[in-house]
Amino acid sequence: MDSNGAAGTAIRREIESLNAAKADIESRISALEAQLRDMDHGTGAISSNGSCTLAAPVDLGLEHGLSPDMIYRYSRQLLLPSFGVQAQSNLWKSSILVVGAGGLGSPALLYLAACGVGRLGIVDNDVVELNNMHRQIIHTEAYIGRPKVESAAAACRAVNSTIQIVEHKEALRTSNALEIMSKYDIVVDATDNAPSRYMISDCCVVLGKPLVSGAAIGFEGQLTVYNYKGGPCYRCLFPTPPPTTACQRCSDSGVLGVVPGIVGCLQALEAIKIASEVGEPLSGRMLLLDALSARIRIVKIRGRSLECAACGENTGFTKEQFRIFDYEKFTQSPMLASPLKLNLLPQDSRISSKEYSEIVKNGEAHVLVDVRPAHHFKIVSLPRALNVPLPTLESRVAEISSALKGVEMQDGKGASLYVVCRRGNDSQRAVEYLQKVGFPFAKDIVGGIEGWARDVDPNFPTY
Amino acid sequence: MQLTVEFGGGLELLCDSVKVHTVNVEVPNGAQKLTMRDFLTWVHKNLIKERPEMFIKGDTVRPGVLVLVNDCDWELSGQLETTLEEKDVVVFISTLHGG
User: Fold this and answer.
1) pTM score over 0.90
2) Separation of alpha carbons A14 and A8, rounded Å
3) Is B73 on the interface with A (CB under 8 A)?
4) Cross-link (Glycyl lysine isopeptide (Gly-Lys) (interchain with K-? in acceptor proteins)) at which positions (chain B) (predicted)?
5) Residue B48 lies in a domain
6) Would you identify the CATH topology of the domain A347-455?
């Protein structure tokens, strides 16, 4: 068994290093291809400053300017009477920026690359992680640990090597948003947080760009087009930011992978309609998707507000105002997905996961209360933990008392009380409460079960 | 008056995770009609089971909640003064930010 285990580890290691090498080679190939394309573009297509001109390959006297390769590649779109060469040519002349290469951005980018948008920009500052893979379908396992922008750009190039892909490997901020977004005709908001959504909408208003906005969480999705031909902007609809407790994140609330996939596809569709100038973009209307009950509802929303702080008649934002606006302060929430780290308790009311592992090893009498929701507890829990979800704590104090008494009867001495959660925030809230209601000796485990996995048991599952 | 109320975007968590409610609401004594102002009070009292601050702020819904009467933003029908009629569908939906 031991030699088997060692051989397995060696094989896994080799697979890992081969995958890394493969990703490197793919990335180099796509960079070289891009270089080659830029050289080719000297004779047509897209100039280095990014403005697109039509490729003028073989002179067949075709007025629309599509090359034979383009005609063949996009033939199924050209065959649509209400799309045709004009819309395809409009697409080729257009440029679209996708902010976020995550669950929404993945399918949006793939379809936008495939359909023949002339220039496609990708902004993201994140790296690919294993827990992204179920929904961020543009990334492959070989890219785990590498920047999402590199991964997404390589995937787009693999689908369509004839378009220009621009990599913006940075977080979008007020300091760089005007410069980046001004280079594109249309912006797709595929981000995951409130401050970024306000910032992107305001920047689109300042620059006069249409914004295709999508969001998804759990089993629900929302989609609309802002700032399009006199339509409302994000702030017209949501002048005041919601309380931070109403801003759920996929990393806390969960999301079924295909749901942002559907919304991302719809974002690509709306962006294509605007770029190619076909159909009726979803402006002044909002699409609401409820995946569990299989219902899609399209509702009419208000028009542009005259008093809007961003796009109103006399109240509008200038570039200077935009640059100094603090979106994280405005929404009271961070743009980056760094989890909250509370510090509610004094040091002597807390122990580290290492200290707790010693307590378990020494067989010290204690009760461990896990205050995570029941469905989290079912994923994984520490041995002999008692699950009392935080919202039910008040009503289950007696249960904790009797658990302590049970342990004391067994051991004939006083038992300690420890509280754990996922990251070490709720456990502090729980200890604060428990100390008030007769358990002054209650302590929380710093860093929660994530800390346990990091510092004590690397094989302990995290999520 | 029979009305349908729906909650979405996470607001259903405030009413035992039930999304669709068919309800009967009386026009207030002495009034001719039922307005969204009356109905909001009724919903707050009868359907919201926890964390009411996630639904109401002051005399209206909290920021980030869209109110739709028959699939139309209530801003277009007079907000709190919107008059409700038999079989109307009122949707409360919280805006999503995830992706």
Assistant:
1) no
2) 10
3) yes
4) 99
5) yes
6) Oxidized Rhodanese; domain 1 (3.40.250)
